[in-house]
Amino acid sequence: MPSQPKDLNHLFHETLKDIYFAEKQILRALPKLARKANSRQLSQAFEQHRTETEGQIERLEKVFEILGKTPRGKTCDAIIGIIDEGKEVMEDFADSEALDAGLLASAQAVEHYEISRYGTLISWAEQLGLADAVPLLQETLAEEKRTDVLLTKLADVSVNAKAA
Length: 164
Ligand code: FE
Ligand code: FE
Ligand code: FE
Known about the structure:
81% helix; mainly alpha; binds fe (iii) ion; single chain; 5 helices
């Protein structure tokens, strides 16, 4: 890598690559979650979020463009680990009444990682004066938060009770 100053600009770019990689992994994982979920509502929530995730990836590409950089991901070990845990639940709890509760919990771990990343990117974008990037990142953060709230609601009204 050409030497780039280790400043907040650099950190912003690296973190953007991290979440870009993560969103692409999530895009691949969501259809599997939707297929495995027994609850129709949960399955629909995963499907809907998959569609949103496509838009989120496009927004990230716009942010790369604002930086004058080519969109490129960088391996995010955190999301790989979270998704691997989800796969483990899928295998260990397949055909069990608790499967949906496990899938839902895995999906919430994903949303919380994203919420943390977007929150950070927004404050750094503000700090760096990247005014055009802020609303793009905020729009995605709002979707991640809405998804988290929806998942919590589904857990409370049906999924966890069925699992118990
Ligand atoms: Fe996302
Ligand atoms: Fe990461
Ligand atoms: Fe998400």
